[in-house]
Amino acid sequence: MLVSVCMCTYKRIHLYKTLESINELVLPKNITLEVIVVDNDAERSAEKIVADSKNGFKYPIKYISQPYKNISVARNEYLKAAKGEYIASIDDDEVADKFWLMHLLAAAEKHDASVVFGRINSIYVKSCPEWISDGGYFDRAQYETGTKVSSGGTGCTLTRRSALIETGFTFDLEYGSTGGEDADLFYRLYKQNYNLIICNEAFVSEEVEIERLNEKFLIKKAIRIGQTFSRYRFGNNISLKDKSIFIIKSILKIVTFSTLVIINLPFGKKIYFKPLLKMLDNFGKVSYFFDLKKVELYGNNCE
């Protein structure tokens, strides 16, 4: 069986390590791979990395240049190119555990799942501010294998390609500068009754970039996640009543978390910043309905 391992990249030298980890995967005997790299840099910075990596690589690597700065456009390129029964997606700043794909495939078969989300382990550099590393501000929640979910990201994920073919779903270009295109696509699959689960044994490691280890990035991320949640969950398909209830609940949470911020101020940033981010997440959820400026992560004016 063929599995397409796909990734998008933009000016990341770390791609060498990502590809190396794919080359070192331990696979079941009946599995073979194709690797697809979509370069979203107009200067084609990843082309040399891919060419260098082909030396001694066990599997064919396809390089695709997609210069238009839109993450959804880039991701759709690998959906078009993929020929495998499954699409395994990973980010260009991650390193796969050698049993990563084996665990994802086993979980998909055992639980008859169309999408399987693995675990992303965050690694903090030595220069990381202590309050961020000790507070685990980039750590992800963990769940038991087989836990059913309604959405997720593409950073450590296995998707049955037939689910995409049957639905005709691709990544929505409207999310191209804000991110959230993956959560949107997987939520649409969930709404079509496809089975989405967690596999805790399958994991990749991701070193948190120095540029993200600060209050500004965490604040921006929290608001963006909140906005994206309201956007893909509701969009324009929500009644005035339901919208009002959701907004009121979110405002009450804003008040609650604001109070917790004030209470925890004496205990330092490690403690009070968590309720602050939850407050901002709910602010983001509310702001979507009032057409406030969307937080952008990709594009010419983004970090």
Question: What can you tell me about this protein's structure?
Answer:
The chain is of the alpha/beta class. It has 2 domains: 2-210, Spore Coat Polysaccharide Biosynthesis Protein SpsA, Chain A; 215-289. 42% of the residues lie in helices and 18% in strands. It contains 10 helices and 8 strands. The protein has an 8-stranded mixed beta sheet, with helices on both faces. Strand 2 (32-39), helix 2 (46-53) and strand 3 (61-65) form a beta-alpha-beta unit. 38% of the residues are buried.
How would you sum up this structure in a few lines?
This protein is of the alpha/beta class and 303 residues long. It contains ten helices and eight strands. The protein folds into two domains: 2-210, Spore Coat Polysaccharide Biosynthesis Protein SpsA, Chain A, CATH 3.90.550.10; 215-289.
Structural class given helices, strands, pairing? alpha/beta
- Would you report the number of β strands? 8
Number of helices: 10
Largest sheet: 8 strands, mixed
Order of helices and strands: EHEHEHEEHEHEHHEHHH
CATH superfamily of the largest domain: Spore Coat Polysaccharide Biosynthesis Protein SpsA, Chain A
The total domain count is: 2
Low-confidence stretches: none
- Describe the global form: globular
Tell me what portion of residues adopts beta-strand conformation. Answer: 15-25%
Overall pLDDT metric: 94
Percentage of residues in helical conformation? 40-55%
